[in-house]
Structure formats: structure tokens, C-alpha cells
Design goal:
Blueprint (H helix, E strand, L loop, with lengths): L4 E4 H6 L1 E3 L5 E5 L2 E5 L5 H7 L2 E4 L1
Parallel strand pairs: 1-5
Antiparallel strand pairs: 2-3, 3-4
């Protein structure tokens, strides 16, 4: 049986921590990313198999 993972975009944005020098640190399923804009979060979540709910 395959597990379907869903997350709201608002929840995922809440996981991003703003960096003082600009950009964000974002961690999902134990993988960490440095991103420039929170709009990158959807693409990362989809790579992890999530369906993002807007």
C-alpha cells in the first residue's frame, strides 16, 4: 500500500526559518535546504512525494 502525503502550503512555509543574511533554511523529512524564496518550497515538497494543498 502506498502512503499519500499531503501538506498545506501555509504549514510548509511555517517550517522555513528566515536567515539574517537573507533567504531561508527549510527542513523536510530530515533533508535541509537553503532557499532564496519560500516559493521554492512547493517544488521541494513535491520531490519528497507530497501533494501540496493551497
Amino acid at each position: 500500500m502506498e502512503t499519500i502525503k499531503t501538506a498545506s502550503f501555509e504549514y510548509l512555509i511555517g517550517l522555513a526559518a528566515e536567515r539574517p543574511e537573507g533567504g531561508f533554511d527549510f527542513t523536510l523529512d530530515g533533508s535541509s535546504y537553503r532557499i532564496k524564496d519560500v516559493l521554492e518550497i512547493s517544488k521541494i515538497a513535491e520531490k519528497h512525494g507530497y501533494i501540496v494543498i493551497y
